[in-house]
Design goal:
This protein is an alpha/beta fold and 398 residues long. The protein contains 14 helices and 13 strands. The chain has three domains: 1-30, no CATH class; 71-95 and 198-376, Rossmann fold (3-Layer(aba) Sandwich), CATH 3.40.50.1100; 97-194, 3-Layer(aba) Sandwich (Rossmann fold).
Length: 398
Amino acid sequence: MIKCISCGMEYEDDNIIYTCNNCGSILEVICDVDVSKEIFNCRKSTMWKYKEFMPVNESSIVTLQEGGTPFCKCEKLGEKLGVELHVKVEGSNPTGSFKDRGMSVGISKALELGVNAVGCASTGNTSASLAAYAARAGLRCIVLLPSGKVALGKLAQAMFHGADVISVKGNFDEALEAVTALALEGELYLLNSVNPYRLEGQKTIGYEIVDDLGWQSPDRIILPVGNAGNISAIWKGIKEFHRAGFMEDLPMMTGIQAEGAAPIVKAFENGKEDIVPFENPETVATAIRIGAPVSALKAIRAINESDGYAETVSDEEILSAQKLLARTEGIGVEPASAASIAGLIKLVEKGVVDKNEKIVCIVTGHLLKDPNTAINACTEPVEIDADIDKLSKFISGL
């Protein structure tokens, strides 16, 4: 069953629907599951380990073995910040970002619904993931990208997997408006995060965190927020496991946005549920360069229900955290992913995060999603003759 989060209108799950026909608000899939957590024992560590909680027929599943991503305890960085820090490395998914979780469920549902074309608007990761999973399922894929606003690593992925990629003159929000209009005309099945089935895949990050911690909740989960589907999806997954009796406590959901694209943070600071869109969002973190996030209401409710928090970080703080995580813990992430680490550092300094809190930071995409930013952050290698004495002298002086 699908339910409107605002007016409560209910819809059958075989409807192709993106927003409520009654009030226009966003929708949520309702899962009512009664199983023991022992059922997950000895299953392969992918997100489909938790298939009973997934709203698609098992015979329709389209998968590239997504999920089961590394859960790294970062002792050096945690000790420096005075917290117990774990990092969930979503860049280890098949196309290099957390979006693969949502696309596995979304494409599986597309097959159930009998559609032959799928589409999205994207700042990069969504298009890369959708193209791969559409190829896996044998579906046509149409992608609208904001002109000049996409990291090359992501654009290459989408095109290489055979998507029809169209560059739209305008920002992400304008591209999303256009592809949504096409979906409503029946040209394609929309798989942006306004589609409630996308978030059903992404909620499995929450499942895995609880499982990784021995069926316990961390004190706080910190993650980047762009279109805002992920923070609400993870909160949904956590609550489902809590209702099932698999865990006792709940985490504080903490969303981090870039200063130049922060409508949710502004709404949180003002005690509002309605956002004021950023008309010209701008940040080096292209994956969260979104001024009018479609899942804003879900995200704000997740933050408030969990007694969580929202904060902004500057581009300088993002790039500094990106380099710090790579050089301290060996985890390479794209700029948007580093927003969670930058946010943690800022919240520790502000006293919002208490000492010794058990923190999980979600890093959402791989370093090579945005290779140009990584290259620009490094210095040119020094060229020296292949002479042992010269090399030894140079290394000694480093």
